[in-house]
Amino acid sequence: MNIDLLIERESPLSIRQQCNILDVSRSSYYYKSKGESDENIEIMDLMDKCIMEYPTFGVIRMQSMLQDNGLSASYERVRRLMRKARIRPIYPRKNLTKKREDKNIYPYLLNGLNVTRRNQVWQIDITYIPLLKGFMYMTAIIDVFSRYIVGWNLSNSLDASASIDVVKNAVEKHGKPEILNSDQGSQFTSEAYLNILKEYCIAISMDSKGRALDNIYIERFWRTIKYDYIYINPPSDGIALYKGIQNWLEHYHYRAHQGINRKKPFELYSKVA
Questions:
Q1: Among 245, 272, 246, 269, which residue's Cα sits nearest to residue 257?
Q2: Average pLDDT of adjacent 10-residue blocks, the chain of 273 residues
Q3: Residues 179 and 69 in one domain
């Protein structure tokens, strides 16, 4: 489906209003190719699938994996594309116990915390989503207690504004969480993002460096949506991706999840509403 056939630029309604009526994101409408070569996109797709199976793979082992698939890439090229695809291997960093002198880095608040109710803890993250040609980024927020996705959207950049919009929309629709956990990515350490959380009086929690498992519930969600939908149904464009995720989430929220004792996220989240 071509979004240009649905949006009328000469309409008295704004692009935002038309997208709202059609229930599509403006990011999907404005989506343009990221400009990477076909080979670079193939490399990012392969590395994205690889990190799901081997979460400790860094640049060197990614190079070896690519060579096994007939692709040669320099260390610098692999490292750049890993960063662009937000591929973060899990391994101990040097000086891991040394306190960072960064005012925008916050402590991890979830150690030993017993999560017993909805909106007690949310986790937010961004991931790379491959298309048939090109890619986009998906931001999502999961309610840890129910595994319900309280907010999500797509964008064609890693700008902090996408994360801010998802937080605002989630709070407006579901109320604010007590704690919102993220990694230490630039989107989540930006002044604009942190100020929004402070305005809402949300406690800020951040993963330790190199510990993706600190944000385990949203990481598991990424694995689920990619294996159950994205990898087997690669969308042709942004609008197809948005509609596909929207439909997939309907099934995700209404099916039993082993991690919450075979309960359904929608029912569990609604029962305590």
A1: 269
A2: 54 74 62 73 96 93 96 96 91 52 84 95 96 92 98 92 95 97 94 97 87 80 96 88 94 93 93 57
A3: no
